């Protein structure tokens, strides 16, 4: 492993977790397809599994598009998933709460089992750790899920500060989260960077305080049309931050 010079890196680096370090979204649709296939003939009224995936996707998009539902829902993700299933079944004319709960729970299990680290993520953290760069992990969501991922991949040892929305009492893009990180590390905003996949939470919010906002464009789609957010830097993989090529 070749290490970049320490002075080429920010004094403190903050990281998002999901879709920045942990591969979180990739298997969402496949997991729904598996759940719908498994449960299509389980209830009193069978359903078309392919059509149900489309319905669930539509309900899910509607559910998460509301800011307040999103805020509450992400703190109890499994309950939100059961609710999405209940609404999707109801849209199809099936009122079966037990079936909805079973589908939501099965989906949650699949997603939890499918998590893995993004390519190059562990190597990047190892390098930054070896260079003694102070690192903070700033993640939204419930304590159990987020701490579960941190423990499962033994990520805790890399970070001096871990802020989980449910434990801290508020989450990104609330600037209190970033102010807390700056105070914890006792650095000026210009000495810190934040890396994440969410343009509002991980880039625009820290930039509002003067922290460098680095966008993790893990899908490689480029900035969405119409966005006013201008990241200080865009990376396809966090490995680029320490000079790793996508093949390392
Ligand atoms: Mg994320």
Explain the overall architecture:
With 248 residues, the chain is of the alpha/beta class. The protein folds into 2 domains: 6-23 and 116-242, Rossmann fold, CATH 3.40.50.1000; 28-114. 46% of the residues lie in helices and 12% in strands. The protein contains 10 helices and 8 strands. It has helices at residues 28-39, 49-65, 67-73, 77-91, 97-114, 121-130, 143-152, 165-168, 175-185, 199-209; strands at 12-15, 22-23, 116-117, 135-139, 161-164, 192-196, 212-216, 233-235. A 6-stranded parallel sheet has the order 5-4-1-6-7-8, sandwiched between helices. A two-stranded antiparallel sheet has the order 2-3. Helix 1 packs across helix 5 and helix 4 packs across helix 5. The longest helix has 18 residues, at 97-114. The model has no long low-confidence stretch (mean pLDDT 96). The site of magnesium ion has 7 residues, from loops.
Key attributes of the depicted protein:
alpha/beta; six-stranded parallel beta sheet; 248 residues; binds magnesium ion; 46% helix; Rossmann fold; elongated
Helix content: 40-55%
Strand content: 5-15%
CATH class group of the largest domain: Alpha Beta
How many β-strand stretches?
A: 8
What is the rounded Rg?
20 Å
CATH topology of the largest domain: Rossmann fold
In the predicted model, the low-confidence regions spanning at least 5 consecutive residues are none
Topology (SSEs and partners):
Elements: E1 12-15, E2 22-23, H1 28-39, H2 49-65, H3 67-73, H4 77-91, H5 97-114, E3 116-117, H6 121-130, E4 135-139, H7 143-152, E5 161-164, H8 165-168, H9 175-185, E6 192-196, H10 199-209, E7 212-216, E8 233-235
Helix pairs in contact: 1-2, 1-5, 2-4, 4-5
The structure holds magnesium ion.
């Amino acid at each position: 492993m070749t290490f970049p010079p320490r002075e080429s890196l920010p004094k403190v680096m903050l990281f998002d977790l999901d879709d920045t370090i942990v591969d979180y979204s990739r298997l969402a649709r496949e997991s729904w397809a598996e759940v719908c296939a498994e449960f299509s003939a389980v209830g009193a009224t069978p359903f078309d599994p392919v059509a149900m995936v489309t319905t669930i996707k539509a309900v899910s998009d509607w559910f998460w598009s509301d800011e307040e539902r999103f805020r509450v829902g992400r703190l109890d993700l499994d309950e939100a998933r059961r609710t999405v299933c209940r609404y999707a079944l109801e849209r199809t004319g099936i009122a079966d709460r037990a079936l909805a709960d079973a589908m939501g729970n099965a989906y949650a299990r699949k997603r939890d089992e499918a998590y893995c680290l993004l390519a190059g993520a562990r190597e990047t953290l190892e390098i930054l750790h070896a260079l003694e760069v102070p690192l903070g992990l700033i993640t939204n969501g419930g304590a159990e899920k987020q701490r579960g991922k941190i423990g499962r991949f033994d990520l805790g040892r890399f970070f001096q500060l871990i802020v989980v929305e449910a434990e801290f009492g508020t989450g990104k893009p609330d600037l209190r989260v970033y102010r807390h990180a700056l105070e914890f590390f006792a650095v000026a905003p210009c000495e810190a960077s934040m890396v994440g996949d969410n343009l509002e939470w991980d880039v625009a919010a820290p930039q509002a305080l003067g922290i460098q906002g680095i966008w993790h464009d893990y899908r490689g789609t480029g900035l969405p049309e119409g966005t006013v957010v201008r990241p200080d830097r865009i990376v396809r993989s966090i490995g680029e931050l320490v000079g790793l090529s996508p093949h390392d």
